[in-house]
Structures are given as C-alpha cells and as structure tokens.
Amino acid sequence: MFTISLNGKKTIYEQIRDQIINFIALGVMKPHEKMPSVRSLALDLGINPNTVFKAYQELEREGYIYMMPKKGAFVADIKQSSTDLEGLKELVRSYKDQGLAKEELLKVIEEIYGG
User: Fold this and answer.
1) Is there a contact between 67 and 56 (Cβ–Cβ < 8 Å)?
2) Tell me: the pLDDT tens digits for 29-73?
3) Which of 13, 108, 19 lies closest to 58 in space, CA to CA?
4) 3-state secondary structure string, 17-71?
5) 8, β-bridge pairs
6) Cα 100–11–83 angle (5° rounding)?
7) Is residue 3 part of a domain?
8) Is 44 part of a structural domain of the chain?
9) Whole-model pTM above 0.70?
10) 81 occurs within a structural domain
11) Separation of first and last alpha carbons in the chain
C-alpha cells in the first residue's frame, strides 16, 4: 500500500504523511478506520518506528488522524479541501519522479473508483 523512496527529495516520514493524506482524500482510508500500528507499519516498510510515529504525530497535529491511548491511531472525519487535492498532486508528482508510468497510476485510480 505504501511506497517509500530512499532516494526521494522528501524525508521518509513526509512520504508516509503525504500518502496517508492522499489515501484519506481518495477514500481508501475511511473516517474512524483504525490505522496500522506504528510498529507494524515500520516493520512492513523496514524503517525505524520513530519515523512512522513522527508521521503520525504530524498527521494528528494537522487533524487527519486522532490517537487513542492503548487503542491506536484512527482516521479523522474530515471534509475534503483544496489542501487535500494539493497533497494528491504532490504525491502524483512524487510517483512520476520515481518513474511510475501514467498508465499504472490510471489503473490504480480505476481500481479505486470501480472502473
């Protein structure tokens, strides 16, 4: 689900943050849905848990997610804004810079929208 570039212009925590914002904007992650735990996401991505925690902290500060002690992180119930669309544009640019073909991106969009 997540794609991390070690050679990208953005830090790893920024890449995670941006992808989660875009998953929320696209409806892949729904309001009040439980997020992957910091530990499990770090393990899946092969990165330090502190990096994931930093991304989650930033997302919470920005209102995209909320954390509940001993229960984990959850997607906040937010309305889509132009900021979300700017984040989506930035993510698409990032994938383009990483070499993702337009056709591959369109295929993912069609899968999400059921096309």
Assistant:
1) yes
2) 999 999 999 999 999 999 999 999 999 999 999 999 999 999 999
3) 13
4) HHHHHHHHHHCCCCCCCECCCHHHHHHHHCCCHHHHHHHHHHHHHHCCEEEECCC
5) none
6) 75
7) no
8) yes
9) no
10) yes
11) 19
